[in-house]
Amino acid sequence: ADQGARHLGLIGRRSPSAEAAETLAALRDRGVRVEVFQADISVAADVARVMEGIQSTMPALRGVVHAAGVLDDRTIAEQQWASFPVALAPKIDGSLNLHRATAGLPLDFFVLFSSVAPLFGSPGQSSYAAGNSFMDGLAHARRGRGLPALSINWGSWAEVGMAAGGDGAHRGGWASMGMGVLRPAEPLATPG
What is the pTM of this model? Predict the structure, then answer.
């Protein structure tokens, strides 16, 4: 919205929290139309249902930002086959479902929020790293087909996101490699 978007379709597996509802109300007070769709992007039928809702009730879709993810940290000794989909599904199935649902649309952007985990490794995050690595590859494949795509290998964010609620051990691990945390206003700020 700060970059000029006047229509937003937001997808989440759960209804917005009280804090999120306040943010949505503030956006609406600024004249931004915000539609919230409850769906799991790792389920193709859910994505198809949301796309139908967007196409029938909103202006033409111009861009996608995939920011979904789930952490299920486990060391290799603790890994079980049943635990792999927890972290993989939102990344692999979710990004692939969004790609398939929008591949024929004239999008301006298709942004995947990936992670530095596949680049630097992170203890206990083999599934999460693999899922994010898939997203990086999907972005390259889309670009090779002439479709817009950008995969951003974010580090840990302060105040928001999966790492913000942790006990600090995760951030301490990144700090030992010389990486700090990102303040939300910094990475999304427009240069200039």
Answer: 0.81
Token couple for 62: 């111009």
Task: Judge contact between 112 and 138, C-beta under 8 A.
Answer: yes
Rounded Cα distance between 177 and 121, Å, is 11
Q: Please check the confidence at residue 177 and state whether its pLDDT lies above 70.
A: no
Q: What are phi and psi of 11, to 5 degrees?
A: -115, 135
Tell me whether residue 186 is exposed, middle or buried, using C-beta atoms within 10 angstroms of its C-beta: 0 to 12, 13 to 18, 19 or more: exposed
DSSP 90: I
Q: Which residue shows structure tokens 């979710």?
A: 94
Rounded CA-CA distance 57/45 in Å is 18
- Residues 6 or more apart whose CB falls under 8 angstroms from that of 23 comprise none
The owner of tokens 């920011």 is: 67
